[in-house]
Amino acid sequence: MRLLERDDTGEVRLTEDLPDNKIPPYAILSHTWGDGEVLFRDLMDGTSKNKAGYAKIRFCGDQAWRDGLKFFWQDTCCIDKSDAAELQHALNSMFRWYRNAAKCYVYLSDVSNCQQDADGNPSWEMAFRKSRWFTRGWTLQELIAPAIIEFFSVERVCLGDKQSLEHQIHNATGIPLGALQGNTLPDFSIEARMSWVKERNTTRIEDKAYSLFGIFDVCMPLLYGEGEAGAFKRLLEEISKDDRCLANLQSTDPRLDKKRIEEAKGGLLADAYRWVFATPDFCQWRDESSKNRLLWIKGDPGKGKTMLLCGIINELERTIIADGHCRNLAYFFCQATDSRINNAIAVLRGLIDLLAHQQPRLISHMRKYTDAGRSLSDANAWIALSDILRGMIEDPNLKVTYLVVDALDECVVDQPQLLKLIVQISSMSARVKWIVSSRNWLQIEEQLAIIAQQSRLSLELNAKSVTAAVEAFIQHKVLHLSGLKGYDKATENAVHHHLSSNADGTFLWVALVCQALADPNLRRWQTLHKLHAFPPGLDSLYAQMMEHIDNSDNADLCKRILATATIVRRPISLCEFITLVEMPNDIGENPQYLEELIRLCGSFLTLREHIVYFVHQSAKDFLQGKAVHQASREAFNQIFPRGTEAVNHTVFSRSLNAMSTLLRRDIYGLKAPGFRIDEVQTPSPDPLHTVRYSCVFWVDHLCDLISDKNIMQRNIQDAVQIFLEQKYLYWLEALSLLRAMSEGVIAIRQLESLLEPTSRSQLKPYTQDAHRFTLLYKSISSRLSKKILKMNGELPTAESQTNRDTDQGLLIDLVQDAHRFALSCRWIVEQAPLQAYASALVFAPTGSLVRRKFKTEESYWIRTAPTVEAEWNACLQTLEGHGRSVQSVAFSPDGQRLASGSDDETIKIWDTASGRCLETLKGHGRSVESVTFSPDGQRLASGSYDKTIKIWDTASGRCLETLKGHGRSVQSVAFSPDGQRLASGSYDETIKIWDTASGRYLETLKGHGHSVKSVTFSPDGQRLASGLYDKTIKIWDTASGRCLETLKGHGRSVQSVAFSPDGQRLASGSYDETIKIWDTASGRCLETLKGHGRSVQSVTFSPDGQRLASGSYDETIKIWDTASGRCLETLKGHGHSVESVTFSPDGQWLASGLGDKTIKIWDTASGRCLETLKGHGRSVQSVAFSPDGQRLASGSYDETIKIWDTASGRCLETLKGHGRSVQSVAFSLDKPDRYRCGLGQDKTWIVCNGQNVLWLPPEYRPGSSDVQGRMISVGCKSGRVFTITFSQYI
Q1: Which residues contact 861 (CB under 8 A, 6 or more apart)?
Q2: Which of these, 1191, 1094, 1086, lies nearest to 1139 by C-alpha position?
Q3: Where are the WD-type repeats located (predicted)?
Q4: In which order are the strands placed within the sheet that holds 1211-1215?
């Protein structure tokens, strides 16, 4: 930004282009352009004073000088409009420049203060409302953005400011007063803001849209010539991108949480928090000249920390509005009892959401994730969100920002990560200041102690101020009670006195006592008796309330409710409580009765929107026995008389029973087997609403009830086995509908671990001795079975023991099979729930226990299923997500992550347990050929076809270093064992060794004579081995770079399939240079035809099925006798590979599509070439005759289809529209089968009637395929050939 600077003589000069952090306070001029304006070039060549517009410059400079400002800005001359890049930057920054100005002067050239009405009074107001300034497009943001605007007449006389003239401005423009008064613009709808410019005009029609950049805080390139409609279309698209981006954040609104907390606590009382503003710690933190970047407010439970922070937020918001919104304020309230807001990820979502709303240009840091399709809600959410927040903090345009986080101690998930991030950000920018609160926890103190510039405000050390604040709170609550209950003065004074004497500076104690006194069932004359029964101290109060529950008529039921609320992993709904807690039928059938029971536990629990929460984390701590008071341990013993295992057992068993009763196939009535999860709408009422918690967490409670003193009982094993045998597929469907499939995979793995007889380390000495292994397994199973019956008080007999060993072995086998089944189908069931009964079952091994148990659930519309393996193979799971082929994979050192590099130019990092994609790394310009983790797992190196190596930080996904130096693609990368060096092998026939710290290359190893395919270090790092394309291996000394040894001695998919006309046989052509003919009924190979010299690209039967034609890379076509397997004819003369062959309907001609862009038509009797058809721009991939043989269709790599006249060879039609190569063409039949099936566009689905019905796992996807009615044959790149037949009832 350039500014004009006025000196004390009145002379004006133009400053250099100043960076944002070097801009001094300045004034800014707003006006309408006229003749003789001073331009940038006029200031440069010294002719500015000769122009009429210089008077405006002098006016603005003089007025700024009078207001104590020596710098000012004017649009006519501070922008070099001849520089397109500078003009674009200026127009995108204009709103911000006006908003940041200390003062804005509006010069109205058509308003005179000398005008008078008939009575001699000033009449400029009419001219003011009709001023041209209010009709111009660009002046809209100049009106909205500045905090202080002064309006001047043509005589340079001040007419008033935006505040004093707001009603006249509102009448002139129709802009709401709230917008003029500084309310945040997102408070107004898109339509409302668009309407503000509707009646305004601009010289260039596109500027009408461009003048709204600041109003919507978007940045866009200028495209003059696109027209008004085009400009507004782009503007709306940009706005919608930001809206979609914020929607992806899926944040709870901290503003609503704050409002809810204040209302739940009876309102925010100013006298309860004002005291903090006078404390030295707060004043030092607030002082902008201070280097203090963090204020930690700490205190014991119930001391009012949350309400104190609510008050601080209100004060900061007030000052921000008064200062013209020149600062940001983002805050978050953690609550351990609410799973939405008790974790570090939720904190980041809330802070980012508020920052993005207050300074929308910061959304760009989110857009780099969302625009690339990266999720902000998967297992990698923490990494992505922390990277976004860091990016916002480091943004040079970031305003001074206050970040407030309440109750760090109640961030129960990933608290250490959050503390670490706060420490990092505190050291990153002086423009960011934190306020955090928590209990007096040592682990929090140790983390925050790392920050050098910080203050600590202890509520215990400010006991006098806190006591006074509590006294104000008591006064407020007593007045409310007095009005509610009609206390006389004596009662009111007694209540006030007792509360003041016993509160001990604890807001929560006062609130809980007042809540009990407000009970409608408490009569006024009972007040004092009830009041004196409340002991001082929070724990003592909880103890008394526990005693009250213990003495009630519903004590047992209330204790069961409290016990369940204490152990569940998230707050649960009333309906879920009915599922998990054993209660009388009349209560279970009426949620209103349960609400009454929750209110009986009101000292501990509260109900919000039918979800049950603890009133405060301290209440949960008390019931868990964590409080210091002895009564806490007694309360724990009361609600857990048989330990937490017994309650976990109840939750587990009731969950299993409820799921067994409710879960069924297609519970949401989706019907279509390919119905996608993102199109599913939860029905009302939701059939899963009572078991949502159970579906996700039943295994967790099973694990919690299994401890050293309580081993799994036989009846539990039986229940688990029955559930898995009868409901497993329905459970997987439910998990998909609940968007919890990954959690389900982890749950079944937990169950498998729970049942595993021993650890791998125990088995290691026996792995080479099968007999000893079996004995070990039986011995451990026997010991485990004995423990199982401990709680029953007796040990089994030898005979019953054998039966139990067998039964437990069956359960282990079933769980292991269920785990493999879940891993294999996780991705597709997650995307399409009903594929659990289609693809998941169809492609499971025939020996899978789950497949056998659920055979009756197999889709009835599949008449002939593909031949699959008998047992699970060594492949645990298939990870999908890359857009093109995967070139390299590598495990992290701990085995918990897997990296993959792909031709789609990305690297993905996967969670090996669940199969979820944690991170997608982008930055390479071409395919990624090699990936490897550093020995500590903190870095990842990637080598690419773009000739570079990149080193990535695996935690944040940031690229740390790009190494350049290779002349061709990098094929392999490897870290040295100490992680200090990196070796890279390249197509340029060299190996380079790099220093990973500096990025400098240390050594180049030459002498290969061929490209380097692979490199690896020896375990001691002293040698390096390289594998080459010339079939040799070289071993190098890494110290000297000398080649120590060269080792010599090294010496290979189905490309096409076709049905015979009767469908009884199938032909397949392969890369192995052979053709196979298969029996489609049995899957038996009938014949292997050999004779081609290279891979077979295409096969086709003659119409009578007696001949078979094959086209090959060896540039020939062979015609075979299908009965004998004899080669009848070899057609030569192509000059290029044969990609496709097809017979005419009468079998007399054969057409071939070639790699040389042509099609040839042959006489099958003589073998003579009848016609060569030319016209395609690239190779022809597929050809097909029309049913009458008069036309031929061809599909090509040039993305077109051509239709030819077979008699003349003339091209009749060229069909365009495909975005990539055409792989297959076919004519429709005269009477098309209504139920015709085929492959989807990406070949991952089989489609019937236009709908996805069966998903194909990667290993079953076609390299080629053929369709005959409702029968589909697929030839896989793996060499597998299979056929599926569908019924007409699909």
Answers
A1: 1253, 1286, 1287, 1289, 1290
A2: 1094
A3: 879-920, 921-962, 963-1004, 1005-1046, 1047-1088, 1089-1130, 1131-1172, 1173-1214
A4: 1180-1185, 1191-1196, 1201-1205, 1211-1215
Q: What are the backbone dihedrals phi and psi of residue 1230, each rounded to the nearest 5 degrees, phi first?
A: -60, -40
Residue 1105, judged by CB atoms within 10 A of its CB (0-12, 13-18, 19+), counts as: middle
1161: Cβ contacts below 8 Å, ≥ 6 apart: 1149, 1150, 1151, 1169, 1170, 1171, 1172, 1173, 1192, 1206, 1209
Cα dihedral: 803, 805, 809, 815 (round 10) = 100
Could you tell me which residues come within 8 angstroms of residue 826 by beta carbon, excluding any fewer than 6 positions away? 741, 742, 745, 877, 914, 915
**Tokens at residue 543, please?**
């103890």
Over the stretch 1270-1288, which tens digit does the pLDDT of each residue have?
A: 788 887 766 778 888 887 6
Token pair belonging to 445: 């103190």
What is the spatial distance between Cα 811 and Cα 725, in angstroms, rounded to a whole number? Answer: 10
Mean pLDDT of the chain: 82
- Please give the average per-residue pLDDT across 1118-1143, as a whole number: 79
Q: What are the C-alpha distances in Å from 1258 to residues 887, 891, 1276?
A: 16, 21, 9
Position 1080 pLDDT exceeds 80: no
The pLDDT confidence band at residue 1082, using thresholds 50, 70 and 90, is low
Contact of 694 with 580, CB cutoff 8 Å: yes
Contacts 24+ apart (CB under 8 A), 57-61: 57/4, 57/12, 58/10, 58/12, 59/105, 59/107, 59/152, 59/156, 60/4, 60/27, 60/29, 60/105, 60/107, 61/4, 61/6, 61/10, 61/12
On whether the CB atoms of residues 819 and 728 are closer than 8 A, the answer is no
Cα separations (Å) of 107 from 2, 149, 786? 21, 11, 93
- Whole-number Å distance between alpha carbons of 1085 and 105: 89
Please name the residue that has the structure tokens 């529950």.
Answer: 549
φ, ψ (nearest 5 deg) of residue 994: -120, 150
- pLDDT one-digit tens code per residue, 1218-1261: 776 777 676 665 544 445 678 887 788 988 877 888 998 888 88
DSSP line for 233-248: HHHHHHHHHHHHHHHH
Looking at residue 117, its pLDDT comes to 65
CA 422 from centroid of its chain's CA atoms: 22
The conformation of residue 1043, written as its DSSP 8-state character, comes to E
Tokens of 956: 């944040």
E strands present in 549-636: 605-608, 611-614
| Tokens describing residue 183 | 């309310």
Give 387-423 pLDDT, tens digit per residue. Answer: 899 999 988 888 889 999 999 998 988 898 999 899 8
Residue-by-residue DSSP string for 1193-1208: EEEETTS-EEEEETTT
Q: Which of 230-239, 739-748, 1205-1214 has the lowest mean pLDDT?
A: 1205-1214
Q: Which amino acid does the sequence have at 740? A: A
Coil vs helix vs strand at 457: strand
Strand intervals (E) in 230-326: 294-298
Question: Comparing 7-21, 308-322, 515-529, 817-831, which segment has the lowest mean pLDDT?
Answer: 515-529
Q: What is the pLDDT of residue 783?
A: 40
Among 1253, 1245, 1260, which Cα is nearest to 1288's?
1253
Q: Write out pLDDT tens, residues 821-854.
A: 998 888 899 999 999 999 999 999 999 999 999 9
Q: What is the pLDDT of residues 615-631, one digit of tens each?
A: 888 888 889 888 777 88
Q: What is the pLDDT of residues 938-950, one digit of tens each?
A: 889 999 999 999 9
| Cα dihedral across residues 821, 822, 823, 826: positive or negative | positive
3-state helix, strand, coil in the chain (%, to 5): 40, 20, 40
The arithmetic mean of pLDDT across residues 641-651, rounded, is 92
Q: State how far the Cα of 678 lies from the Cα of 687, in Å rounded to an integer.
A: 18
Query: In the structure encoding, which two tokens stand for residue 352, read together?
Result: 């980012």
> What gap in Å lies between CA 294 and CA 448, rounded to an integer?
9
